[in-house]
């Protein structure tokens, strides 16, 4: 505004108010975040929270003890900065541990980088590789930030859904029944495709991609010279003897894949926010560039403790005492409890092959919460909000894991997290049983 005799009399602080738009264009369309909304709802209303993905049981003692030792031990340098791209003991043990699994020598300094959780690892990938005009293939349903991170980097997400096939014999569906259509997947690749995001085991379905499915993806990546951002944060959480296959180990894939992992999921300590990336130096050098110009560094003590956790796991690898053997065994039991609870009340579970999560079909509960035709909000979202407010049970609508165009198709499922104490799962069972009785009693 032009200064007048009036404005001259205003205090300086009022005159200085900004009127120009401040938001950078890259933030357009990424302002809504499902977690902010549903975490708040759960905090306000839930008696039993099976929404956001975190365990309510403690991390293993050996990990907590390692943290305490790092915190209160003689080496006070652990309270100071460490190497920007990863505390040396952590990158060394990660290189040794995963080098064995991948069957290749990993250089801790160039093939591994530590990040603030897997979330920052993802952010580094999108910022480092994607630019205006690039397309990124995202398999639906997907961990929601893949879409917003693609857009923030200036890229265009291209979605390809897993197609469910109902088993004929009346059995419960499994996450295995959700499959890619090979022709549809192939049709999404073009000269504009820069990367595909793979998340196996997959959040939210719990799908563990088979070797055949990974080979299909790998062949297309090689054919079209496309990068693979492979989010493997649930790599240890696979059930029923299933195998987690690392796509980077398939022919032609190491050179074009960034592997992403998380100590949060690996050691049941999501709040520590220690994650990592692994891959060829040719790719990781660009991730280091983003990291050094943004976060620069992750908490030293947490990195030291995670390093010790991996040291222990290296010594126990494949043995009964290994946490990577024990945790999935415990979680499989928890999965089965929740499957039974949901099945007993008619909220049909899709049995997950991996992860913390299971998705359930709420179609039979539709009479409780009437549909609102022409509502902008998907049905499952309104259902999940109603459920937490009226029943005290928090879950996440599956439509949150779909692109705008597909939300209305996949709008009758909700996702539960079963990485919870037995008592929590029992309390969830009580709520469901009571709800069913209320439904059936006249
Ligand atoms: N990827 C997937 C598929 C996830 O589910 C999560 C956490 N919910 C992350 C990445 C982020 O992991 P972190 O907590 O280590 O940042």
Automatic annotation (TrEMBL):
InterPro entries: Aminotransferase_I/II_large (IPR004839), Kynurenine-oxoglutarate_AT (IPR051326), PyrdxlP-dep_Trfase (IPR015424), PyrdxlP-dep_Trfase_major (IPR015421), PyrdxlP-dep_Trfase_small (IPR015422). Its cofactor is pyridoxal 5'-phosphate. Its EC number is 2.6.1.64, 2.6.1.7, 4.4.1.13. Pathway: Amino-acid degradation; L-kynurenine degradation; kynurenate from L-kynurenine: step 1/2. It catalyses: an S-substituted L-cysteine + H2O = a thiol + pyruvate + NH4(+); L-kynurenine + 2-oxoglutarate = kynurenate + L-glutamate + H2O; 3-phenylpyruvate + L-glutamine = 2-oxoglutaramate + L-phenylalanine. One of its GO terms (cellular component) is mitochondrion. Keywords: Aminotransferase, Cytoplasm, Lyase, Pyridoxal phosphate, Transferase. GO terms for biological process: kynurenine metabolic process. Residues 47-428 form the Aminotransferase class I/classII large domain. It holds the Pfam family Aminotran_1_2. GO terms for molecular function: cysteine-S-conjugate beta-lyase activity; glutamine-phenylpyruvate transaminase activity; kynurenine-oxoglutarate transaminase activity; pyridoxal phosphate binding. The keyword Transmembrane does not apply. CDD domains: AAT_like (cd00609). Belongs to the class-I pyridoxal-phosphate-dependent aminotransferase family. This is Kynurenine--oxoglutarate transaminase 1. The lineage of its organism: Eukaryota, Metazoa, Chordata, Craniata, Vertebrata.
């Amino acid at each position: 505004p032009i200064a007048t005799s009036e404005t001259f009399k205003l205090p300086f602080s009022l005159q200085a108010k900004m009127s120009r738009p401040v938001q950078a264009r890259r933030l357009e369309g990424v302002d809504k975040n499902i977690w902010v909304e549903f975490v708040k709802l759960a905090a306000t209303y839930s008696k039993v929270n099976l929404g956001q993905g975190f365990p309510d049981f403690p991390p293993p003692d050996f990990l907590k003890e390692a943290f305490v030792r790092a915190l209160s031990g003689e080496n006070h340098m652990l309270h100071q900065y460490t190497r920007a791209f990863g505390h040396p003991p952590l990158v060394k043990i990660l290189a040794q541990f995963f080098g064995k699994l991948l069957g290749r020598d990993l250089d801790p300094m160039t093939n591994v980088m530590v990040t603030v959780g897997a979330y920052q690892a993802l952010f580094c990938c999108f910022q480092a590789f994607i630019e205006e005009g690039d397309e990124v293939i995202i398999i639906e349903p997907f961990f929601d930030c893949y879409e917003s991170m693609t857009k923030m980097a200036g890229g265009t997400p291209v979605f390809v859904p897993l197609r469910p096939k109902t088993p004929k014999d009346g059995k419960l569906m499994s996450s295995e029944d959700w499959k890619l259509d090979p022709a549809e997947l192939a049709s999404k690749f073009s000269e504009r495709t820069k990367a595909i995001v793979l998340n196996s085991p997959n959040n939210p379905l719990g799908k563990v991609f088979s070797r055949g499915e990974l080979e299909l993806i790998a062949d297309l990546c090689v054919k079209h010279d496309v990068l693979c951002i492979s989010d493997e944060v649930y790599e240890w959480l696979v059930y029923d003897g299933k195998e987690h296959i690392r796509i980077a180990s398939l022919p032609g894939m190491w050179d074009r894949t960034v592997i992403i992992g998380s100590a949060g999921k690996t050691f049941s300590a999501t709040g520590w926010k220690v994650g990592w990336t692994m891959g060829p130096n040719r790719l990781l050098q660009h991730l280091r560039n983003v990291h050094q110009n943004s976060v620069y560094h992750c908490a030293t003590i947490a990195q030291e403790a995670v390093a010790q956790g991996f040291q222990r796991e290296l010594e126990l690898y494949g043995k009964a005492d290994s946490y990577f053997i024990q945790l999935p065994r415990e979680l499989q039991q928890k999965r089965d409890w929740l499957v039974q609870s949901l099945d007993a009340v008619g909220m049909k579970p899709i049995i997950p092959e991996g992860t913390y999560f299971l998705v359930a079909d709420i179609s039979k509960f539709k009479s409780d919460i009437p549909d609102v035709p022409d509502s902008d909000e998907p049905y499952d979202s309104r259902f999940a909000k109603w459920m937490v407010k009226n029943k005290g049970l928090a879950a996440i609508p599956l439509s949150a894991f779909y692109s705008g165009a597909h939300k209305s198709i996949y709008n009758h499922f909700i996702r539960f997290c079963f990485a919870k104490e037995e008592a929590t799962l029992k309390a969830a069972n009580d709520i469901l049983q009571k709800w069913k009785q209320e439904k059936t009693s006249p």
